[in-house]
Amino acid sequence: MNAVDTNILIYVHDNRDPRKQAIAESLVRNLSDAVLLWQVACEYIAASRKLEPFGYNREKAWIDLHKLEALWTPVLPTWAMLQRTEDLMKQYKLSSWDALIIAACLEASVTRLYSEDFDASARATGLGIVNPFATP
């Protein structure tokens, strides 16, 4: 099972970096067996305002989110997820937001998270974290 971080969804509509935009578009378009994390959906709507100067707005973000909703399985927060978040924060010294995304992935049996934001401590959780923009 796969998941993407907010930054991947934002890059789909951010034409300031054509390379990242093309990679993000391809990934989102072709990603199968994926989930949409609740936190990512919320962050995406909030972050979409950064793209308003470039012609993208919250209305368009909501439309795109509804499209993903039809394709990907939503993952909603649970008490177990919050407990796991607390444990990850303590064990790996992760920020609350990073720990919440990882906990959601682990609770939903996600094996691969696409993001450019996580460091080695996040990888120690056992979740496969892939930076699709990294050059080999």
Q: Describe the main β-sheet briefly.
A: 5 strands, parallel
User: In angstroms, what is the radius of gyration?
Assistant: 15 Å
DSSP helix fraction: 40-55%
What overall geometry do the principal axes of the alpha carbons give? Answer: globular
Helix-strand makeup class: alpha/beta
Low-pLDDT regions: none
What is the CATH topology classification name? Rossmann fold
- Which CATH first-tier class would you pick? Alpha Beta
Helix and strand succession? EHHEHHEHHEHE
Could you say what the CATH architecture is?
A: 3-Layer(aba) Sandwich
Number of helical segments with 4 or more residues: 7
Q: Could you give the count of β-strands?
A: 5
From the N-terminal CA to the C-terminal CA, the straight-line distance is 24 Å
Number of domain units: 1
State mean pLDDT (0 to 100 scale).
93
For this structure, what is the CATH homologous superfamily?
Answer: 5'-nuclease
Strand order of the largest sheet: 3-2-1-4-5
Strand content: 5-15%
